[in-house]
Structures are given as C-alpha cells and as structure tokens.
Amino acid sequence: MRVSRAERATNYVILAAFAVFALWPILGVVVAALGPDDAAGGTVGAGVLGLHPENFVTAWNQGRFGSYLRTSLLVSSTVVVVSVVFSLLAGYALGTMRFRGATVLFYVFLVGIMMPSEAVLVPLYYDLRALGLTDTIWALLLPQVAQSVAFGTFWMRAWFRSANRSVVEAARLDGASTWRILWQVLVPLARPAVVTLTVLTFMWTWNEFLVPLVMVVSESLRTAPLGLAFFQGQYTQGFTLLAAGACIVATPVVVLYLFLQRHFIAGMLEGAVRE
Amino acid sequence: MSDTATAAPSRARTPEGTRRRRRGGPPGEPRAVGWLYVLPALLVYAAFLLYPLLRAVQISLYDWNGNTLATWAGLDNYVEVVGDPALRASFGHALVLIAFYALLPLVVGLVLAAVLGRAKVRGLAFFRTVVFLPQVVAMVVIAVAWRRMYAPDGSINDLLSAIGLDALTRGWLGDYTAALPAVGLIGTWFEIGLVTVLLLAGMGKIPTELYEAARLDGAGAVREFFVVTLPALRGEIAVALTLTVIAALRTFDLVYVTTRGGPGTSTSVPSYEVYNRAFQQGRVGSAAAIAVVLTVIIFAISFGITRIAERDR
C-alpha cells in the first residue's frame, strides 16, 4: 500500500514511542540493579566501567535467591515434564479416537482453562492441610500439574485433530499399536506444538505466585517470585538489591522468550483463538 | 464445536447424519482404549481442580474459620457478597480495572494496528518482540518495578516535575484517589502488547483488495478504519477482550505486592478479598463464596464474548 513519507515517518515515531513505553519500567530495573548500591550509603567503589555487577552477587546472597531458584527450577521442570506427557496422552485420545464420553471430557477440560485458581486454592489448601501435604513440594506440584494439564490437553487435542490422518492410517496398516503410533509417528511430527506447550507451561509455572504463597511456609520451598516478594518486605532501605533480585527472577523466562519468542507469541494468541 | 453436539440425535438415522459424524467428530475407529490415555490427565485434573471447585461451593454454604467446626450458613455468605459495602466496592474496583486492562489497551491497540497496518514499516518484528515482552515477565517483578516508579521520589514524579507539572506529584500508591488508577495503569502497560500483537496478526489476514476497493470509493483513513478494519478484526477483538477482562478480574499478584488493597481498602479486589478472608481473617466460608461468584462471572464473560463473536461471524 502506498502512503506518504510523512505518514511513514509518523509510523516510526509511534513505534518508537510505544517500544520505549514498554521497555521503560523493565530498563529502569536493570539500570537500578547495575547502579551504585543506594543502601550502602556512598561507600561504594567505582565498579566496572561505572557499573556494579557485584550487586547481583550481594542480592543473591542476601536474598537467598540460590535456594529460591533451585525450588523454582525443580517445580517448573517437574510440572512441565509430567503435564506435557499427560497432555500428549489425553490430547492424542481426544483428538484421534472415538469413544463414549469423549466430547463431554473435552468440555470438562475446557472448563479448567477458564477456572480462576483463586477459586480452587481455598478448599485445596484446607484439604491438603488435612492430609499433611501443605508446606511440602507436593502442594506446589499437584495443583499446578492439574492447571497445566487442562490447557495442555486442549492444546494437544487441537494439534492431533489437524494432524495428517494418512500417516496414522499407514502406520496402522503396518500393524503399529496406538502406543507406537503416538510415540514413533505423531510425537516427532508434533515437535513444534510440544515445544510451544513446554515453554508456556514453564513460563506459567515459573511466574506463578498465588500457589506458593498459599501452600508453603518453609523458606526452602519458596519459589523465585515468592522469594522476591519476601525480599521486598525485608529489604526496605534501598532499591538496588531489590532490582538486582527482580532481574534474577525474571531472567530465565526472558532469555527463553528471546530465543523462542515465536512459540511464546503463537502459543499465547492461538491458545486463546483456537476453537 | 457445537455442531457435533446438536447433530447427535439425528445422525444415526439419516445418511446425512452419518456423513456429518465422519466430518464433525474426531476421526478414527471407536476405541475404548481412549479412556486409558485420558486417565492420568483426568485423575490429576479431577482431584486438584474439579473436586476443589465443588468443595468451594460446599464451603461457601458454611460459616467456618478454618479450624473449629463449621456451622451451616445457607446463602448468608452470598447475601454478604451483594450486601456488604466493602465487598461491593471490591467488585467495583474490578470494574475500574477492566477499563484499564481491557478497554484502554483495546483502543490504543486498534489505533496502533490501524496506523501501522496502512504502511509496511521496517522493524515491525522487533517492535512485536519488545511490546510483547511484559507478558513473559513475572507479575511480581513488574509490581516491584512500578512500585519504585510510583514512589514519591520515583521516575513518574521526576517526569512530571520535568514537564512542569509539579502540582501533580504525589506518592501514587499511597493516595486514596490515585492508587486504583495507578494500579490499573500497570495493567494497561501489561496488556497493550498482547492486544496490539493480536490485532496486528488479524490485520495481516485482511485482504488488501478490501482496502483498495474502499479507496476507489474515496474512503479516507478514518472511514477505511470503520468500514474495513474494524469489522474484519471482530474475532481478534473478542479474543482480546476475553483475555484482558479475565486478567483484570483475576488481578491478585499486582495488588498483593504493590498496595495490599490499600490505602484503606481503596485498591482491594475480589481475588485479594478471597485471599485475605481465607488466609488472614479466618473467614473461609465467605472467601469461598466470593471465589464462587468470581468464577461464575468469569465463566459467563468467557461464554458471552465467545457467543457474540461466533454469532457475528
């Protein structure tokens, strides 16, 4: 489409303005994290090229982010592996097989996508407490696997439904079992969809705040975002170390996003658009 | 998707029905083994999502402090949701947040998409990456960042002073009237990227001939927007509204980290009330009732917006 030079220039100005708006708060944190420690009261050295990367070390030690990140990594990777496998199995059945109740099952899973976790966490906390499971890793894993499996099943079912039937028919004529068809024929083809599901589940689990806030008390079980919230409560003299902590918490998902942004954007948009 | 459900009674009898079944339902032979594949997912899901939801409904009918014996309360907790001014206010705050999370980003996103869609600009991919970035950053981190910006000596006040608006400077999150819009603006910032990227993707699917036809008819940029762009983006707008309205209603992390519902109760929202009552005040029944009402509202909105979008299509 042809437009005037002035309009084109305006477009760039608008693009730049919104990019700055989107980046401003994030860059503010990064800049603060690299600046001189404002709580140390002016006794700081020159730093490296005027920057102070040592703030990250100080924040890491003071805020005990090592422990928080370890918990987050353990919880996120477990939730991702278990829920992706379960979603593949369920999505495969709902997307390629015909059986009694399949449609109802699909709607049942659909409900789970919309359900706000606030609603289920209240009874879940008291029921898990009765079972002695609160303040254990299980209280972090099980509710989040359940939430992830709802979206995952929905997502994988959509992929299996659109998958090429002839490959499956050919494999079936060769006498392959449903199990072999899934793992040796379809899963290799489904790799892009599985990668998308993996990064989304990882992001949602890593960033989750309410589940760990409600379910655990022990410091060793705090996840990274929860640890950051507690660090904010304790560390009130300045902002530098808090900013450094915020960077530490955000970095894993942001790095993943920079490499796999297509998967993030496509997943978050299509996941909502499909069906 | 409603196609298979409504066709169910007739499909066994008429040849038409059999054909529809092939096309509409999941393809393949009937296999009861399907249940085995669904079972692991279904078990976890039923035990940790469906069952707790039913329990929430049950608990909401009792007066319970979480420890001692619960007493039957009937619908008292629900009456409170409607009658209690503090709770009503929290739902009112959620409405304000909807304006900030959903409407404002939609208007901005539409303008952006309309302007950017008219001309091929370089660097659109980079722009997309940047404006979408807030979506992947943990809300706690976002809250920490904005709390600092809103502080009395933060960058928002610096900016206002720099352009001569000293009179407006304040501690934004500690101000009774400014706190809620301030929290809402964080939501606007958070959702603009999502909405814009979604609308830009939709713009890409509009055939250029439509614009050319409109131009031949002598339509200007504004008319073009209302005649071509807006109707073509209906589906995307519905999706954007569903996602952002639900996000607004579910706001919790942001309020918890920035204001804890304060000052006073000026930024308390339903999700925060659920947490507060269930885990701080020991009013579990009331918390469950708010949670159930919130869930019903969210379901209604999701179904409602999807329905409208489907009917229009």
Write a compact overview of the structure shown.
In chain A, 77% of the residues lie in helices and 0% in strands. Chain A contains twelve helices and no strands. In chain A, helix 3 runs parallel beside helix 6 and helix 6 packs antiparallel against helix 9.
Question: Can you describe this structure?
Answer:
- The complex is a heterodimer of chains A (275) and B (313).
- Chain A has a domain at 72-223 and 256-273: MetI-like (MetI-like fold), CATH 1.10.3720.10.
- Chain A contains 12 helices and no strands.
- Chain A has helices at residues 5-34, 54-62, 65-96, 102-114, 117-130, 137-162, 165-173, 178-189, 191-207, 210-215, 224-234, 240-273.
- The radius of gyration of chain A is 23 Å and the shape is globular.
- Chain B is mostly helical and 313 residues long.
- Chain B has 2 domains: 1-30, no CATH class; 77-312, MetI-like fold (Orthogonal Bundle).
- Chain B starts with a helix and ends with a helix.
- The relative contact order of chain B is 0.12.
- Mean pLDDT of chain B is 85; it is low at 1-25.
- The chains are: A mainly alpha (275), B mainly alpha (313).
